[in-house]
Every structure is written in structure tokens, then in C-alpha cells.
Design goal:
Blueprint (H helix, E strand, L loop, with lengths): L21 E8 L5 E9 L2 H9 L7 E6 L2 E7 L6
Antiparallel strand pairs: 1-2, 1-3, 3-4
């Protein structure tokens, strides 16, 4: 079983001054749990961050959405069928 981090180090959620946005870290991982790329973006809601992340879920095996050091969701793509 691949090592899956329990927290996202180095990212703290913070409000953007003058807006009702929170910062989210969206991580795209391969089937071994290794991060292939990540994004750090502001969104108004958890749902808006989820909608953005789902746009790339077909290209990545695992998609994680972090808010501060809390994992909000981890989505697994269906394994390819041979």
C-alpha cells in the first residue's frame, strides 16, 4: 500500500483580504500515491473547489482537496479495465 500523507505540510488556509475566499490545495496523484502536480487556489466554497478539481480527475488516479491541513475529499478514478 502506498504511503498516503496524513496532512498537507506548508499550506495554511487564509482569507484573501476583501473577499470571501479561502485557499485550497488540490493535489493530483498517480496510482502509487505520488503527487504529479498540485494547485493552490482561492475558492468561495468547498463545493467550488471540488467542482474545479473534478475537471482533471479523468487524467489522474487520485485527486485530493485540502483546506489548510484538513483533507476534505480524496477521489479515486476507476482502475482501467483490461
Amino acid at each position: 500500500m502506498p504511503h498516503m500523507p496524513a496532512r498537507c505540510e506548508g499550506f495554511a488556509h487564509a482569507e484573501i483580504r476583501g473577499a470571501d475566499h479561502m485557499n485550497y490545495s488540490i493535489r493530483y496523484l498517480n496510482e502509487r500515491g505520488v503527487t504529479e502536480r498540485s494547485e493552490f487556489l482561492p475558492f468561495e466554497t468547498d463545493a467550488a473547489a471540488g467542482d474545479h478539481a473534478q475537471g482533471d480527475k479523468d487524467r489522474h488516479f487520485i485527486v485530493e482537496i485540502w483546506k489548510g491541513d484538513s483533507l476534505l475529499t480524496r477521489t479515486f478514478r476507476d482502475a482501467p479495465k483490461n
